Fold CSF2R factor.
Amino acid sequence: AGMNGTAIENFVCVIFNVSFMNCTWHVGRTATEDTQYFLYWRPSGEEDVTECQSYMKDNCGRNTGCQFQNVTIENKNAYFLVNGSRSGQNIQSYERKILLISDYIIVEKLTPPLNVTVNCTEASHRCSIWWQPPRTSHVKKSSCFKYEILIENK
């Protein structure tokens, strides 16, 4: 249902600082300035569908994203629905059910490693560096991470 080309495109969600998630999208190709979008989601099968409480808007005032707080990501499915209207007419809906940690529309920006410690000795001209893995929303094994160290002489 709805007019062709009015559904959102390029739906992507990014998790950052462990429990925050931003979902963004582009307006449909034939969307007019009076088109408005609404995002609903259900983070797991047991919960109710809820509407976004904090929308991001474009220059025309159209909802083009949502900011979520206190998001818990585990091995679970999530359901996303973006629908809306323009001039009182329904637009095409966008629906997606995804496995949160493996689907391409969810990306996690990691925090830096924690408790970085450097111990250098002048006599041996060596330094030892230790750290703990970054906090993440779902990765439990530290062996999943690869690190790169850049050392600069100052």
